Prior knowledge:
It is a single chain. The chain has 4 domains: 8-125, no CATH class; 142-206, 2-Layer Sandwich (Dna Ligase, domain 1), CATH 3.30.1490.20; 209-300, ATP-grasp fold, B domain (D-amino Acid Aminotransferase, Chain A, domain 1), CATH 3.30.470.20; 312-397, Alpha-Beta Plaits. Helices cover 29% and strands 28% of the residues. The chain has helices spanning 8-12, 32-37, 59-67, 82-94, 119-126, 131-134, 151-155, 184-196, 253-269, 300-309, 327-340, 371-382, and strands at residues 16-18, 52-53, 78-79, 99-101, 143-147, 162-166, 179-181, 201-206, 210-221, 225-236, 242-248, 273-282, 287-293, 313-321, 343-349, 361-368, 387-391, 394-397. The longest helix is centred in the middle third of the chain and has 17 residues, at 253-269.
Amino acid sequence: MMKPKYTIRDIYGDVVVTVRPAHENNPWMPSENKLNALSARESLIADVPVLVHAATQSEKARQLFQLAGLHFQEQPYVYRSKEQYDEVLKMWEDKGKKVVLQYIHDKKTLDRDAYWMDADLLNYLNSKAYLSEIVPKQFIPKRTVVESNYLQKELKKWTLPLVLKPGDDTPTAGGYGVQICHTDEQLEKAKKLFMQEGSKSVIIEKYVEELENYSCQYAYSEKIGLQYLGTSVQITNDEGLYAGNVIVSDVPEQVIEAGRQIMQVGIDKGYVGVAGFDLLWTADGQVQAIDLNFRLNGSTSMLLYYDSFERPVAKFFTYDAASVDDNEAFYNMLADYVAQGVLLPLSYYDGDLLEEKEPSTFVCIWYAQKLEEIERYEKSSFKYRGCRSTIMGKGYVYT
């Protein structure tokens, strides 16, 4: 039976978990349905209670896990609305439970003392604005943080291409808010976006042409010490939006060591848990850190289960049914691949169970002897059978 190298309990201890951001409006996050679908993504590696949306606890989800030879991790805490979500957090607080969160929540939703670690430190470590205070100097691309009112003036000192990012403490995910600008037209569009969303400050960063975009992940607790979990190559589209990961083993040692140094800084400041860092490897053998995620990452489960696959290639991805009418065919196709032993389910979000039906969402890990096998599965079946690949909330017909 497949099992992870570490569980959340192994790393964080006797805790409760929510991986969903708070329900407040946030322009740099995916849609509400996508966030709800991802709420159960870490259930398979948890071994502790996880607060999940009710649509992830369906009989169809149970059947997919049974087909994979895994025990379905039925969760004791579920929500269907913001009110129910907040009620569970408040109940955890009242019972004195230690809560692991991906993103800081409003104090009215959860008291700072209920976090498993210092909440303000968690917010600080994950803010894009403070990257240069955490990352060793040699790994930092040219960047500056400027108040939005002075953005136009500061940009006169820069040349294209460049990258603009939110510079305040607003949580981000999946590349949302990251604007890669190669042309004057793209730059104007990016400036208007930040003005429209009312960003207090903006990060201007040098665009780095990379050979590879790695996500290096680590874990730390007193129980296990500092552990390197592994590395994957990140899949992004031309706009920089996150679209999954493929695991790799031939990673330059300089990249792994750079990530280890960054993790150690977080540990020295008081961080406990999993963290993943976006590290670019350039043609001249340089490592450049462009984003820090002191939290569970999308591909964390893939790295923790990798040894159990006993196959060299694994790919983390998310798929949507093309429409509500395709939900049944979508599920049947997934069940076929899970039964073949090439697809590991992490979460199945049953869109038919929602008050207003939505396309279902499936979070998963492919595993095979060669990447070409996975690509063949995707192109031969997913293209024609009512499925869209997902780029953090944006659906595209797979081609």
